[in-house]
Each structure stands twice: as structure tokens, then as C-alpha cells.
Amino acid sequence: MKICMLTSGHDVYDNRIYYKEILSLQKVYDEIYIVAPGDKDFITEDGVIVKCFPKRKNWRDRFRPMKDMYNIAKKIGAEVYHAHEPDSFQVAVKLKKNFGSKIIYDSHEYYPEAFSEHFPKIKGLMEKVIYTYEKTLAKKADCIITVNDILVDKFKKYHSNVQLLPNYPVLKDKEIVKEYNDIPTFIYVGGLREDRGIYKTLEAIKLVKVPCKYIFIGPFESEIFKLKCEEYIRENLNNKDIVFTGKIPHIEVFEYLKSSHAGFVLLQPNNWRYVNAEPIKLFEYMITKNVVIGSDFPMIRNIIEPSGSGLLVDPYSPEDIASAMERLAENIEETKLMGEKGFIEVNHSYNWAVCEERLLSAYSALK
């Protein structure tokens, strides 16, 4: 079976698309393509054939990339086209109509809610329009894949073949050996944005009385937010051990995670999509034996509480966040034990091996 992944906005080496789905499918299928934004065609070291089209200039630049994607994809002549956004799935629908291909819609996000945020004055109206657009397209899928129970329930209202494949991490071959820093170390990995709790975390650090180290890994979302954080640090946190690394290679991120004690997942409550999310970062902390300091939202609570792998806080309260940090810093042996519990839970329940079996079964049913 010839398989072609289609994406209008994700990177070729997107973690879910490439390192999870494609590498899982390669265990059964030999010929896999991916059509994605990029500068030039190439073949990956795993033998995946990459066909590229120019990246879109901004979020409004949607039609030209879709045309480019279709022209490339039709020449591939795949038996299955697996699309990762409404835009790329519209291309898949056209390929099915013209060539009889099987098509999969892989919905990773709350697309109607996310896209409508570009239109704050008519957000409610745009959300309904995009929801109707997505529903009309998704009905044409041979299979729908999605990442959480909320989205499964949404799609099951109008489609009979919906598969749940959460964004669980791929297990490493060997158990991680921690090399803890001498002082309690707290880490954040990801884009540095206000709605991901970065500024609230800085406000909390000011209140922590125990000596600790703080590491923030990733790029700032904007120069304005970067300046805002730098000003706060300069005026309030000169006596704190804080490191901002910027964006660094994955292997270096892993080295930092090996030495840290706890990680922040402090999504803010003013974004409905965040309140109803299972952040992949949560599982990545758990798999590296880091305790999670997480927003007290239902989906995060359902993972943290049963496993005893973290502390839930009000993500809008610097006092609550600071209290959690002090508890972990003052009880290091308990903190290490919580990290071990998270690692055990990921290995038992929250790992990609569970999803791989479902993915291969879904593909097998398309034959």
C-alpha cells in the first residue's frame, strides 16, 4: 500500500506525524510519502520520500499552498492520503473524488475554535462557520483519527469510524538515569507565551524563599513578551538563578530534563482549548521522571491525581504556584518518588505503543 501524508502547516519532522505515525506505519508499509511545506524535495534517513511546496506567507495564505499540495499529491498516486488539517484534508477529499483514493482526517486540535481566534469581533460566528466546514469535509473521510475524548465524541456524532490516538510519547529503549542538579531545579520546555503561564511562573519565582534553579527552554512568542519578561526579571529577580536557553537541539533538551526535578504545565484558564487539552509536554516530563506542576484542569487532573506524579495548582495564582515549588524543593526525596511514579504510569498507560496498534489496525481496515 502506497501512503501519503499531507500537511499544510506542520514541519516534515513533526513529532506526531513523522516520529510516531510514519515510523509506526513503516513497520508494515514500504512506500510512504509526505507532502509538506519546505524548500526542496528529499528522502529522509528512514527512506520516507518528502515532496515540498513553498511555505505559506501567513495564516491568510491558504489557497495557493492547497493548489500546490494537490498538484504534487496527484502525481504520487497513493492508495491512502492521510491529512492533518482541514486545509490538507480538503485536498484529500478532491483526490478521493478524482482518483478513488482512501482518505484519513487526522484532527490534532480544536480547529474551529483555534481559527476563529483570528477574528475576535466575530469569533462566535466564525467558529460556527468553520465547524460546519470541517463537519462537511470530515463526513467524506474513510477514517477519522483524533487525540482526546472530547474530539472523539464530536466526530462520532456524524461519522462511524473514529479512532482515538492521543499524543502519548514514544518510549525510549532504556530507562532514563537521572543526574539531578545539586539544588532543586524547575524546568519549562516549549514556546514562551503568556497564555502558557510563563509570566505567572516568574511572578511565583519571586515568592519562593527556598534556593532553586529555573530553566526555560524555547523561543519567545514575540519580542514584546520577551521584553516584558526581561523587565520583570531585571526589577524583581536579580537574586534568582534563572536560565533562558532559547531554542536548542532535542538532545540538549533531554540533558536538561535528566538533571531537573519538576516541569511546568501552567496553561492559562482564559483559553478554552487549553482547559480541555492533554498537553504532550506533561507526558514528556513524566517520561523523564520530572514531577509535573500542572494547571488544575479536568484532563490534566485525570492524569496527575491517579498516578501521584505531580501537583495541581491554580495557574493564575503566583502564590499557589510558589507554594507547590516550595513543597517540592523542601521535600526532595518525596519529589524524586513522585517522578518515579510518573515514569511508571507513562510506561504502563500513556505511551505510543498503545496508539501504534490502533493506527495499524485502522489502516488494515482500509484495504
From TrEMBL:
PANTHER family: GLYCOSYLTRANSFERASE WBBK-RELATED. Keywords: Transferase. Residues 29-167 form the Glycosyltransferase subfamily 4-like N-terminal domain. SUPFAM superfamilies: UDP-Glycosyltransferase/glycogen phosphorylase. Gene3D superfamilies: Glycogen Phosphorylase B. This is Glycosyltransferase family 4 protein. Residues 173-342 form the Glycosyl transferase family domain. Coiled coil: none annotated. It comes from Clostridium malenominatum. It comes from the Bacteria.
